[in-house]
Amino acid sequence: MCKCCSIKCWSIFFNSLFLASGVALITIGGLQYSTYLQIGIFAGGNLSKIAIVLLAVGITIVLISLLGLVGAILNNSSMVGCFICFLVVIIILEVLTGVVFYIFRSRAAILQMNSTINTKSRESIYNFSPEKRHDINKIQEKFSCCGADTYTDWSRSVGWENHDAVPDSCCTVKSEGCGQEKSKLHPKGCIWAIKLFLLKNLVWVGTVCIVLGITEVFGILVGVCLCLHIKRKSYEELS
Fold first, then answer.
1. pTM exceeds 0.90, yes or no
2. Residue with the larger pLDDT of the pair 97 and 39
3. What's the Rg (C-alpha) of the chain?
4. Cβ contact 114:122 at 8 Å
5. Which residues, at least 6 apart from 11, have a Cβ–Cβ distance to it below 8 Å?
6. How far, in Å, CA of 1 to CA of 237, rounded?
7. N-term to C-term CA, the chain
8. From residue 35, how far is each of 6, 45, 155 by CA, in Å?
9. For residues 148 and 120, what is the distance between their CA atoms, to the nearest angstrom?
10. In the chain, at which end, N or C, are there fewer CB atoms within 10 A of the end residue's CB?
11. Is residue 141 pLDDT above 70, yes or no?
């Protein structure tokens, strides 16, 4: 009885942790989605798909963890069994996704993404228009950057009329008219800042996948033990 309770407690603890991670992924995915939409003007619109994947994974984890949590609380072997099956399928999909990513992680694909960011960033500054002002200001403020490669890009912009100044969003401390003083501007360009941001996100996503994979394997083991205990207890009650 004590052993069964111990396994049940471990299962409830795991599913609660799994549920919390799913909620966290949904929250982070939502925040990242808005960020990716903002930098889409500099890096292309496909980046928002990364956030959509995070949201989908988070929702899936929440639903599966709820199934396992309710099954553990109610001592329902069928629900726990379904929970185990879903986790096995998810692990298989994660392995297949990792294999596909490994196969297509070619230098050409990396160079293509690099080229897209370079091209779109420079075009956005060079062909600046009032419609882009809000998005560009948000990017420069969020990433503490100015221009595509450097703040001098604004002096070559066709759409930016005042070539003796840059947008005030380029300033380290934003104030009206601060864009006229070069000493107050962010020295780095937004291309470098966005690439660094994406690299950090890639490392973070990879770390999360590894942690989730380990947690899922542990969840399967605990789930199997709980399922066997529930069935054994049912047989004992029948006999």
1. no
2. 39
3. 25
4. no
5. 68, 72, 80, 222, 223, 226
6. 13
7. 17
8. 43, 11, 27
9. 9
10. C
11. yes
